[in-house]
Design goal:
3 copies of one chain form a homotrimer. Chain A has 257 residues and is an alpha/beta fold. Chain A is built from 11 helices and 9 strands. Chains B and C meet through helix 2, helix 3 and helix 10 of B and helix 5 and helix 10 of C.
Chain lengths: 257, 257, 257
């Protein structure tokens, strides 16, 4: 008998099937650069995106969403207000929300705002090495990552050449993907939206993060195999995520604990 | 002799030819998710888009535009102000403007704002079933749609698996399109921009709406025939609308009264 | 021995190689329509984009950037504030910044704001004929262009069917490109970002502008040769700029003094 908590490729396939069957609503407070690609990634996956940031209505959108994504990519006053309102809505309802602290290392107001959001206990944080080091104040290593997860209560998805996921107790390493992923803007942002959609249908934070990163990485690998460059890669990963079937996902997933 | 008021595929081909010949300016107050795709759709069609929402200058842009699109997709304070200014400019000049009340069913401020805009008498309203029911307060059926058109004075384009267009007196049903249209964000928004461009060159509101939805639906069908998924479909529909010729449009149009 | 100040195709190839080797940071204050495509163009070229416009943090982003792009495409209050802060940062540090006065002919506040920015002495201005005439107040001809360059201290890149570059003393004319470039929104904006990235690695303003426009024009020509329309062209130019090699660039460049 398969135990999905141990067979991670099957887990990813199960979570993907659930996203497609349930079509969860994912509300995204994300930067202007990423909005279109993120919405298209969620649609290709089988989820239903909404993107409004107007403070007057973000509470109603978040209130009807199955998961929330907060991304700091372009941090203006209206988005900051929206992020505070929406994270409070999800916190009160104990519903999933995911933080993507983009460029948190680049400016002091951004670091301060990301830390304030972190104190509101997002379920999952997705970031890269530079962002992790700025946010945690520690150099990246396995122990620092696990400690950060325990301290914040979040599952942490650290993406880079390989992806690392931990909740402080469990660890996974995912080796899928394509070098072209770093050549398309908002790829990380859209990947965090995939994780949010997975968390809408999988309450285990660590499993949701692992599943989302496997799905994204395998789709990226398939797209990378035929792309002529970053333009056709950005198109191809949407086609690949939309067409991804269970057998291909399981056959291609390269994940270790 | 052909009567374009009855031969709707020919009407659509005539309107498309006029858009290409006259290159009308279409000013769009639209959501951040849709801006890029909408501008590209208008360019592919042969129109000239502008997208500014700054309240200080939107009156000048609207004043020089041949048609105006107002879309509520991401409703922030600046866009609300811009929508009020620009719709007033078009109203005073008796020039065409089209309303797309995106997600009007999702929040109370959005419903209220859409109703206030509706009272300013847009020439055309393009919406889906959920948006229609929220805005009109009535369940969707042919009579409710015709009544809404008569009450608002607008031609109404109701899009979905089939598209229905009425001005309260005339009706048309269009059966073109592709299931992939629902998998690309801002496809409806861009479609409303196509209708606005058609209304810039065809003063009959109902004919302009029918023509726009035929053009979009046929282009979608052509793109859907070769797309590998939603990514390549979004690219392909721009190519298809740019390349669409009269004979193909007339041959592929599936429209009934 | 080759003199790169005279052999302009080789100069363009040298500058492109430097961009790829150094991966300069280019901060972009640009319109919402152009942000995603501009970021993808910079990534495809080998540069590193950032796009925040929040007044609280734009000084820190500009302070760490190797070049700055200011584009007026959608001119809202926040972008105006960001443009003033960031241009001051670059001015004090004597670092490169490039102005793209999009649609400056369309509204009075836009003309006034563009002139105020021009007084802060951008290194390079990229514009089309209508924008030049509105900004300079003179009909376009070679002398007016050279005079504008001398008066503002900027290298001027005037784009259209052919591109003209002058710093008041030197002139170049570039005949690369594709008619489809006018059918993709934000192509000019993204082209100005390419020039900014070139200026980050080439301090001569005129040479940087010439190099950027050759790279963009050749990539456009390559993409245009296989595109099925404006949708696939927008994808193809990103692939082409990413794949562009020295020999192809030099063989295809059509540039004269």
């Amino acid at each position: 008998m398969r135990d999905p908590s141990r067979d991670l490729p099957s887990l990813a396939a199960d979570v993907l099937a659930r996203v497609r069957a349930r079509a969860p609503r994912v509300h995204c407070i994300t930067n202007a650069v990423a909005q279109n690609f993120t919405a298209n990634m969620l649609l290709a996956l089988g989820a239903i995106p909404s993107m409004t940031i107007a403070p007057e209505e973000v509470a109603e959108f978040a209130g009807r969403a199955d998961a929330l994504l907060i991304n700091l990519g372009t941090l203006d006053a209206e988005r900051r207000a929206a992020a505070e309102i929406a994270s409070a809505v999800m916190g009160e309802a104990a519903r999933p929300w995911v933080l993507d602290p983009v460029f948190v290392e680049r400016s002091a107001p951004r670091t301060a705002f990301a830390r304030a959001l972190l104190a509101k206990r997002p379920h999952i944080v997705r970031l890269n090495r530079a962002e992790f080091e700025a946010l945690s104040g520690a150099p990246l290593n396995d122990e620092a990552l696990a400690d950060f997860a325990r301290r914040t209560g979040a599952a942490v998805g650290l993406t880079g050449e390989a992806d690392h996921v931990t909740d402080g107790a469990r660890r996974a390493r995912i080796d899928n993907g394509s070098p072209l992923m770093a050549k398309v803007t908002a790829m990380g942002c859209a990947g965090t939206a995939v994780i949010a959609a997975c968390h809408a249908v999988e309450s285990d934070r660590w499993q949701a993060t692992v599943a989302g990163l496997i799905v994204l990485g395998v789709a990226g690998e398939l797209a990378g195999a035929t792309a002529a460059g970053p333009g056709s890669f950005a198109v191809g990963i949407l086609d690949a995520i939309h067409a991804l079937d269970r057998d291909t996902l399981i056959a291609k997933a390269r994940v270790a604990r």
